Structures are given as structure tokens and as C-alpha cells.
Amino acid sequence: MSEEPVRVVLVDDHPVYREGLSMLLESMHGVEVVATAADGVEAKAAVDDGEPDVVVMDVQMPRLDGIAATRDIVARHPHLAVVVLTMSEDDETVFAAMRAGARGYLVKGASQHEILHAIRAVARGELVFGAAIARRVAEFFAAGPATAPAAEVFPQLTAREREVLELLAAGRSNPQIAQALFLSPKTVRNNVSNIFAKLQVADRAEAIVRARDAGLGRA
Asked: Which residues of the chain carry a pLDDT beneath 50?
């Protein structure tokens, strides 16, 4: 039996690029473009109506930019994956997208293979960055000094929550965490939600940044 296609909403304010990318994605095996949007406001409506698996999101757009739209969409649909596809590759935009909850970041000009790989990967719960972006993200995390153990840095967490946070910081998806700790997916989701609340972070990306800054997930 063939797998269900990954349902995609495409968001970009340039109509020629948006329609061209839509045609490109539709030509790919295993991808279905269920809607397109010209800005963040339209994107939120398209996500509510189209029930996609992945949103491919531009950043610089009128009315509501891609960072704010990503934050709103992920808050309303926590299991939805957002891939940012934009011209900007400065550190501020990259980390703003991560904090907003994006699971992938590509620069426009990425190949058809890179875009398809990113869509499929984030749909599986992975984090994906283009080569140049990934290099800078790695350098950013590597630059921080090692700090105290999680028990000292995050005393508000239970031992189980610290284990989950350690794996989350290492880039593991919820299913991978469940397998590693012999837990049910629901238990992992509950632990992740508790971690977000106790660390007062809005999303997975922000939790990873906090944990990595504290020295977790570096092994």
C-alpha cells in the first residue's frame, strides 16, 4: 500500500514564485499542495481549512510576517511542521524562526531535492536546515561553555522530564524519545508539555535553545 502524500500549504507573497513552487511541489511524488497563501493572515486561514502536515513559509510578507504566522500556527496546531523558505540567512532571522517553532529553514535557491527532503523530514518530526544554516547553528551551540548538570540548571523538572529534555536537546523526535526511554507517545507528549510550562518556553525550538545553552544534548 502506498503512503499517504504529505499535505502542504505554501505561503509566499510573490505570486510568480508562489505559483512556480506550487507547480514544482505538485510534480513531486508524495506531496500534495492543498492551499497557497500570500501572507501570514491567509496562511492561518489556509491551515485551519486545509489540515496540512507541513507549511512552507516565507518570512518577509505584508500584514503578518512569516515569523509571527509560524508562532501563531504552531500554537494553534502544535503537531504541524513549518519549513521556512526565504531569502534571508542572517542569524537573527534563523533563530527567530526556530524560537517561533519552525522545524526547518532553507534559503531560496535550494534544490528540488533539498526542498522535498525537508518537507518529508519535518513531516516525520525531524529538524532540517540547509547546509550553510546548519553550519552556523552548530557553531552557535558549540560556542557556549559547558554548564552545570540539568538537575542543577533546571531543578523544577522531574528526573523523567530531565531525561526527555536531554533527548529533545539532542534533536530527537517524540517517537524517538518514546523508543529510547520505553515510554508511550502520549507519556512523552505530556512530559514535553510539562517541560514547556516549567521552563516557560513557547515551543520545541525555544526549549532546545534553552537546553543547549545549559549544556544538554551535546554528547
From this structure: 1, 145-150
- Domain ranges, ordered by start, for the chain: 6-139, 144-213
Cell numbers describing residue 32: 500534495
Task: Say which DSSP state 5 is in.
Answer: P
In DSSP notation, 130-168 reads -HHHHHHHHHHHHHSPP---HHHH-TTS-HHHHHHHHHH
Residues 6+ apart with CB under 8 A from 122: 54, 81, 82, 83, 103, 104, 128
User: pLDDT (tens digit, 9 = 90+) per residue, 136-170?
Assistant: 666 666 655 444 444 567 888 888 888 899 888 88
In the CATH scheme, what is the code of domain 6-139? Answer: 3.40.50.2300
Please tell me the distance from the alpha carbon of residue 100 to that of residue 70, in angstroms, as a whole number: 6
Q: Which CATH architecture has domain 144-213?
A: Orthogonal Bundle (1.10)
* Cβ-Cβ contacts under 8 Å for 13 (sequence gap 6 or more): 38, 39, 58, 60, 61, 62
pTM of the model: 0.63
Closest of 94, 73, 67 to residue 9, by C-alpha: 73
Measured between alpha carbons, how far is 7 from 129 in angstroms, rounded to an integer? 20
